Amino acid sequence: MTTAIRRERNPQQDLINRRLPFVVAFLVMIAFALLVKISSYQWLSPEREREIKLRGEQNVSSTRRLPAERGIIYDRGGQPLAFNTIQYEIGVSPNLITSDRKQTVATQLAVILGLDEFDLYQKLSTPNSLWQQIARPVNAEVGQQVADEEMFGVIINPLSKRFYPQGLLAGQLIGFVIEDNDNTRGALGVEESYNAQLAGRVVNQEIINVPFQLPIDQPIKSQHGTDLVLTIDRDVQFWVEYELQRAVAESGSDGGTIIVMDPRSGDVLAMASTPLFDPNNFGDYRANDLKNAAISNVYEPGSTMKVLTVAGALQSGAITPQWTYNDQGVFSIGGIDVKNWDRQAHGVTDVSTALSQSLNVGMATIATEMGQERFYTAMRSFGFGQRTGIDLPGEEAGILRMPGDSDWSESNLATNSFGQGVSITPLQMITAVSAIANDGLMMQPRIVRQIVNGDTVTNAQPMAIGRPISAVVAKEVTTMMLRAVAEEGGGVPLAQVPGYTIAGKTGTAEIPSPTGYESGTSIASFIGFFPADDPQVIILVKLDRPDEYWGSVVAAPVFKTLAERLVILLGIPTDDIRRQLQASGGRVNER
Amino acid sequence: MNPMRVRHTFIRMNLRPRNQVVAVGLLGLMIVMIFAGVYLSQIASYATMSRQTDQLIEERDKLERSNELLRGEIAGLETIPRLLERAETLGFTPATSDDIRHLVVQGYNPNRARTVVPLDDETLGSQTAGYDETFSGWVQQQIDNLRRQFEGFGGSTP
């Protein structure tokens, strides 16, 4: 007997059975769609591929921009002239600060930073904001106070701030730094001319956000900028600036410049022009006051040029040290009458007397003897009309009108010989006269002595830029300059330093104006080097429009005061001691 | 031969491949565990080193900041006007040429070249880091690390 078991149909099961194909079909479609989508990632355009890769990397890492630390600037003795200090930027991440903490954080920050509490609260309440700047820059003490509070959501970023610890000292030589967020740019001085080396390298550092993932192998190379050691001697620079300011004030001058240089190497030991400025607060000064007048302002040098005229004439063979002329007090050339400073006729005069007594007629006669070609060749060989190439920005080339130029006339030959009608910078003048002090070899003035990159020290080698005269001529002119110092001031040498032989020359130049020359005003100057037989230092003193007219009266005493200070600072023994030391085998005066 | 024993052997024959699989599996598991242990120990040491490095970096940054502040302070104290002021307070006056006395010592060169003792090759060699790690050394290092970690769990000291 068979028993048919008839199962009753379950309506719910039927419903499921009916719907199941649809569900399966739906899932298959979804799976297919996903499969298609996944497959599509295998054939991406390069741009899309890069974008996805970047998004992937951003999930595990982020990039932090590490600003470069600027190199330090030292003087030749290792004293820092410019370095970096730490300042802070304070910011907040509003989305990390809960509502109940906003008031507390705003109050704490307001107290420490001295800001308005309500403004801070508003910044903290900015919706959906990742970052709000609160203060920039704040000094290290304030930054540390904020850090000590350990407020979650308050972000403190260190900033590097350029600092010039010596204040006004050598501001024109160092320059300053313009800071723009993380970028810094040197302006003026070595900060500008060596900006590429000082600035260092900005580094983007990869930060891994996933625990246990090893950092990407990316050696972070030094981001520190190169350090510079200048030729400047801080102590010499200080006294130069001190004496310059004192001289300008006491002489009633509009301004002035002093340069101290080592003629053997071209090392600028000090260089200052008024007004001085503090690079820490460069924004407080007018743009014109930030210029380095020693290299960017031109002037007519006057009688200091005479030593170069004589040197050029001796070198060219136009005259000999025994050469004489008949000084009649007036020399007519190109429609003008050249007269001596004392309006006197000196009769038969030799070249040494013409130089020591600073006779314009004598110089005009010498220039005429030389002729245009030899005279201007000599002037060019001394570097006039061209930049010296010092490693500072803003150097002017000066103006030396040459025969053939539209504004040159025959009278220029005579006036140029005694330093009128020619415009030069103080640096050009001291560079040219250094050739006389350095046996005829003219060195390029320089301001950077060493470049220090980590353990690598690169010494900047002294570079000769010409030999305008021979060693013999240099000695002959030095002898004449010794006499010029000894005989100046009517036998009362105002530039003489006891115990030392000083070779020098005064200059009193008229100042050109649109209508001719200013009356009653002058540029008073003195250039000299010592010890005359083994020159270590050359100094140029220039004062603009002093109350007293003559360079011998105004500038020579400044030279003397400074020279007396420098022999102590630089350890230059008196001539007799030096000769004894040299005789016993010692090499003195080496730096 | 005991027929029961033979029967038992035949029955076990069916189980033998399964046992081998289990044994191989266990062996594999052990190897995986050893590698996992080495890996974890490695990761743990990386994490520890990373924490230490972070702390050192933080300390270095802090010291650098202190250095910067000190350098600024020292430079400020060493400016010439400050030094002059301090010297005057102490009763010093600027020297003049008359105050300077030079002594001539026969044969003495005040600017003689500085004497620098050259480093010999041996000294240089000992200071130069060299790569001398071997595979066996590295394995030994990992085992030592692992052992130290396990010893650390028990609170025992080696």
Task: Draw up the topology in text.
The complex is a heterodimer of chains A (591) and B (158).
Chain A: H1 11-40, H2 46-60, E1 61-66, E2 73-74, E3 80-92, H3 99-113, H4 117-124, E4 132-138, H5 140-149, E5 154-163, H6 171-174, E6 176-180, E7 183-187, H7 189-193, H8 195-199, E8 203-208, E9 227-230, H9 234-251, E10 255-262, E11 267-273, H10 293-296, H11 306-316, E12 324-327, E13 330-333, E14 336-339, E15 347-350, H12 351-356, H13 360-381, H14 410-417, H15 426-437, E16 442-443, E17 448-453, E18 456-459, E19 464-466, H16 471-487, E20 503-509, E21 512-513, E22 516-517, E23 523-530, E24 537-544, H17 551-569, H18 575-583
Parallel strand pairs in A: 2-9
Antiparallel strand pairs in A: 1-8, 2-3, 3-4, 3-5, 6-7, 9-17, 10-11, 10-24, 12-15, 13-14, 16-19, 17-18, 20-23, 21-22, 23-24
Helix pairs in contact in A: 3-4, 3-5, 9-17, 11-13, 11-16, 13-14
Chain B: H1 3-77, H2 80-89, H3 121-127, H4 135-153
